[in-house]
Amino acid sequence: MTSLAALPLAPRPARVVGVRRESHDVVTLTIEASLPPPSPGQFNMLYAFGVGEAPISTSGDSTAAGPLVHTIKAVGAVTRALCALGPDTTLGVRGPFGTAWPLAEAAGGDLLVVAGGLGLAPLRPVVYHALARRDDYGLVTLAAGARTPADLLYKGELAAWADRGISVLRTVDRATAGWDGRVGVVPALLTEAPISERTVALVCGPEVMMRYAVRELGRRGLPDDRIWVSLERNMKCAVGLCGHCQFGPSFVCKDGPVFRYDRVRALFSIAEV
Predict the structure, then answer these.
(1) In this structure, are residues 60 and 66 in contact, taking their beta carbons and an 8 Å threshold?
(2) pLDDT score for 5
(3) Which of 6, 61, 134, 234 is most exposed by smallest CB count within 10 Å?
(4) How far is CA 18 from CA 5, 28, 83, 116, 270, in A?
């Protein structure tokens, strides 16, 4: 008999052990599941029973053993169902899938983490990795933005990261009462970020933001082969069988979601269909 573990399309039951609301439409779930630990940048397929499944990047601290952590934005039927789960409820999970951020390759240099909106979730493990291995990196800078202050993820952690030596640049598209930070788009923060030949940039967020971000990084002199982007195209099977996420000659689910920018530059401006 074939074991469940040998079937990449079969979700395993998992238990929700923690729920934290990040904003009105974003929830972080902590999940107990018998899966291999993910690397920063990888994703799992989360299954809401009776509704369907969706690819969700891992957003926990991969340097510490413990449950899986996923930050989810309610944008469709599946993600709304996942965000409605409470403690001690059950969902399905399979993974981890995909490529990881190049943290070993970046060791010895400076890290520039560029996050727009929910893009901070797949990059959160990068920050924790850099904090746990602080001597492996030089300058570590986080440039993060959101639509409004209420939409900015992990607010308390941003302050804690700054206290631990991470340079944190924040911006919002629209300010509200009490906001004393910058107002503007994330790529505008990159005019202030320290960039040199030692820098490796990791970029995740809405694709339009990433296009302008990599353009600004290039204007600042950062070569394309030192820029990495994470794509979240229409992934369905997660193992390269269905073809939904084909991106030129690649499949985002198994050849990505993390790509070195020079390898996808020619396709990057093609909008998802």
Answers:
(1) yes
(2) 47
(3) 6
(4) 25, 8, 12, 25, 38
Angle between helices 120-132 and 155-163 (to 10 degrees): 30
Check if the beta carbon of residue 138 is closer than 8 Å to that of residue 198.
yes
**What spatial distance separates the first Cα and last Cα of the chain, rounded to whole Å?**
40
All residues at 6 or more sequence positions from 26 whose CB lies less than 8 Å from its CB, including other chains:
71, 72, 73, 74, 83, 118, 151, 153
Which two structure tokens, joined as six digits, stand for 61? 């601290």
Instruction: Evaluate if residue 4 carries a pLDDT over 60.
Output: no
28 and 62 Cβ atoms separated by less than 8 Å: no
Find, among 130, 12, 119, the residue nearest to 61 by Cα: 130
The token duo for 162 is 């700054």
Which pair of tokens denotes residue 186? 């994330």
Report field, pTM of the whole predicted structure over 0.85: yes
Domains and CATH numbers, the chain: 4-97 (2.40.30.10), 103-230 (3.40.50.80)
- Based on its alpha-carbon atoms, the radius of gyration of the chain, rounded to whole angstroms, reads 18
pLDDT in tens, 120-179: 999 999 999 999 999 999 999 999 999 999 999 999 999 999 999 999 999 999 999 889
Amino acid letter, residue 77: A
How high does pLDDT run on average in the chain? 92
